[in-house]
């Protein structure tokens, strides 16, 4: 009979989770749909390893209580965000699955929150990239695109969150973009700040073309619809390597033997 050490149990579970998350990201990028069987497989393959990890602990009661709390928090937040249309179904299922599979450890006492925070922090890389790109356009190419807008709020939003994309390119792969501009009565542009995960980009594109003010070659302001599952995957990698800024910030020091 093969006996695994606690470290080997964690390693095997981590590799299984990385494999499942990698497949989910691939599916999300290619077709914006994730097969629910991935989450079922992860639970079937990894949950017994989580149970084994508890059996190997000398002190398991406090970690189990924290684990139940982590599952509860992760599930409630994920379902709430999905209900509000801030998460896709795959995003919510990924967080719930990870909440179930990841027990508390020295990396984090509340893994579900740590994973959510890591994923959210990593989305800031998109903002940094867009800001750098727009500053290059302004400084090096002397583009005056901020003059398209009247309010400071719009100018800041455009600088931090948008890129310009031709409608013809958006039509080819509408799932990669959110169109954030609309025409005004006087023919200028205005920014629409609120968007949801279920927004139909193709429908917005067609409505712009129907106004007669836009053609397929018109560049419009867009935000990239990067699959959030990619950030969940990267957030999990960051978690298993470094833990979470949540625990560093609040210095959670409840002793756990793992």
Topology diagram in text:
Layout: H1 6-31, H2 37-55, H3 61-83, H4 89-101, H5 111-122, H6 124-139, H7 152-161, E1 163-166, H8 167-172, E2 177-179, E3 181-183, E4 189-191, H9 201-210, E5 219-224, H10 228-242, H11 245-250
Antiparallel strand pairs: 1-5, 2-5, 3-4
Helix pairs in contact: 1-2, 1-4, 1-10, 2-4, 3-4, 3-5, 4-5, 5-10
Throw out a few tags for this protein.
elongated; Four Helix Bundle (Hemerythrin (Met), subunit A); 60% helix; single chain; 258 residues; two-stranded antiparallel ribbon; mainly alpha
Provide an overview of this structure.
It is a single chain. This protein is mostly helical and 258 residues long. It folds into two domains: 6-123 and 227-250, Four Helix Bundle (Hemerythrin (Met), subunit A), CATH 1.20.120; 124-224, no CATH class. Helix content is 60%, strand content 7%. The chain has eleven helices and five strands. The strands form two sheets. The chain has a three-stranded antiparallel beta sheet with strand order 1-5-2. α3 packs antiparallel against α4 (89-101). The radius of gyration is 22 Å and the shape is elongated. It starts with 5 loop residues before the first helix and ends in an 8-residue tail after the last helix. Mean pLDDT is 90; it is low at 252-258.
